[in-house]
Amino acid sequence: MRKPSIYKQLLAFFIAGIVGFTALGGWISVQAETESPISPNTEQLNLVGDGKPFKPDDLEQSEKPYDSDRGIPTGIDNRIPMLSRNYPWSTIGRVQGTAADAKSYYCTGTLVASDIVLTNAHCVIDPETHQLSKELRFIPNAINGKSQSSKDIATVQNIAKNVLYGTDFKNGGFDNVQNQSNDWALIVINQPLGRKYGYLGWQSVPASTLIKQKQGKLFFVGYSSDYPDPSKEGYEFLTAGKGWTAGYENGCSIVGEESNHFYHDCATASGSSGGPIIDVIDGLPYIVALNNGEVTNPVTGQDIINFAVKMDFLDKLTGRK
């Protein structure tokens, strides 16, 4: 699942002009270019916070995303199933959407406040039609298709008012590099699930620090459409199927920065859009980047490298310096 010599490969493919960009929510496959995003209306939602994580007192914390050795086969790929109900794994869930054309899709989202979920803009608005989704739900800590309680499945009421996004994908869609770097969204849900499940903090860490000091030290969680496969040995008990249990990968890296977005080598697939790339800083979990796309060789279909959104937009929204 890793990409050896990826930075050189990436440059070579761009020069050859045969690089495809795929939005991981499962909507589009296009190529990259330039222009400007919309100016977000921060009055749409009351985003407050200092970017620090929160763990409820009655919620246990675990370093690993599983409680036993069950369901952790070796030699299949880098990922293992996220099976823990403990913090911080409890903060990550599945964003379930219905597009304006009535088609269903899903992405990954993370609680960053008691009632706010962080994901990608292309998980709430169609990059081709520029229309907001007509329905959005958040299923926290979905494991084998289920949350801790069916009562905890949150919805978004009045989507136009309660969704803030960094781009509407006009002026070039995903061909626009600036749209890619602003591919973030904040969703206000109708329940304060963060009080029960906790929420992650965020930090805007310089690319130089992530690249030089954090190689192989980050981890990623996403509800990928290719994982887990219950037909494979060790995954038989995950009967809900692919995309209904998050995959966890430890030891991935930010490997580069260009046009105000990151490149990373974490294992991804459709559905993992909006998944958090996490670093443990002073013993606490912080989102340091937001997975949003991949570069592939359109001839072979081989995954070369992935894109991620930088977190400095949250500093700007909250006025944090």
UniProtKB/TrEMBL annotation:
Hydrolase in keyword set: yes
Domain of life: Bacteria
A Pfam family annotated for this UniProt entry: Trypsin_2
Coiled coil: none
EC number: 3.4.21.-
The keyword Isomerase belongs to this UniProt entry's keyword annotation: no
GO biological process, one term: proteolysis
GO molecular function: serine-type peptidase activity
Chain intervals for the UniProt region annotation (Disordered): 39-77
Gene3D superfamilies in UniProt: Trypsin-like serine proteases
Top-rank EC class of the record's enzyme: hydrolase
Basic and acidic residues composition bias: residue spans: 52-70
Protein family membership: Belongs to the peptidase S1B family.
PANTHER family linked to this entry: SERINE PROTEASE (PTHR15462:SF8)
Protein name: Serine protease
Origin species: Nostoc sphaeroides CCNUC1
